[in-house]
Amino acid sequence: MFDKGYGQLQAAIASSTGLLKAIAFFLVWAGLWLPLAIPVAIVLKWRPLSPLKVEQKLPLLASLYLIAPLIVWGASWAEGSSFSDYGLEWKLSTLVSLSLGLGLGVLSLAVIFGLQSMLGWIEWQKEEKPRDWLSISKSILLPTLLIGLLVSGIEELIFRGFLLNVLQQDYSVLVAAAISSVIFALLHLVWEQQETLPQIPGLWLMGMVLVLARIVDGGSLGLAWGLHAGWIWGIASLDTARLINYTSVVPAWMTGIGEKPLAGGAGIVCLLGTAAVLWSFSG
User: What is the 3-state secondary structure (H, E, C) of 73-87?
Assistant: First the structure.
């Protein structure tokens, strides 16, 4: 009975297009998440389409992302593949790529915020008392790094791993990258709509750069994972520590609408510069 059902499932998947497989994946993911998310949302007193506070977002995000690897595992079982086919292998080279990507992500942010500071677009927050960096590391830097690694790892496994692979069954890598990046960008609307809309082009470009990182890394997700984590870590740490003030010397669309780097020219330049660095290593 089980063998027959398993064979029928494999046959159905094999006859489906990559796009249909992708749609089925997200429907299953949503179907399994909603029974968890609804009680959590009720307890947290959050209603869909209303702004999310940090203390509301983290439990909902955790309930969504912690089940994601199981969904990917189920999809890989049905496809007759494995996590290594999606670019995730637990070996030394992956950790090396992860570290390099993390460093590149942080460096790219340092460069773009440094340039904005030189131009007078931003000011660094000054305080009368010197900051306790050990305390900041414990309360901000370490937690945001761990969250960044978790979120980026799961998103890379899904969007630059599974999703990119199944879309390439029907499309070229460029088209598959574009479609997966559109889905990646639009799904961010689940959390905040008003803040996310101006970031959609930047999120799409971010997805494309992360696909390039996987290609440069020979199909491994290590570099893309580290790069993504570095960006999350850097931006979240700056926001949480409130280290930056925007001077309004230039229009918001240059620094980032709503003080969101991906919603402005500076963030786009950061992504393009990172892509140029990655491209220089692709040859």
Answer: HHHHHHHCCCHHHHC
Q: Which residue did the predictor score with more confidence, 277 or 42?
A: 277
pTM flag (> 0.85): yes
Residue whose pair of structure tokens reads 């945001």 in the numeric block: 144
Q: Cα separation of 229 and 146, whole Å?
A: 9
pLDDT at residue 75 is higher than 50: yes
Cα 161 from Cα 251, distance rounded (Å): 37
Of 153, 267, 281, 282, which Cα lies nearest the Cα of 206? 267
Alpha-carbon torsion, ordered 206, 212, 215, 221, to 10 deg: -20
Instruction: Tell me how far apart the alpha carbons of residues 46 and 72 are, in angstroms, rounded to a whole number.
Output: 28
Residues 6+ apart with CB under 8 A from 14: none
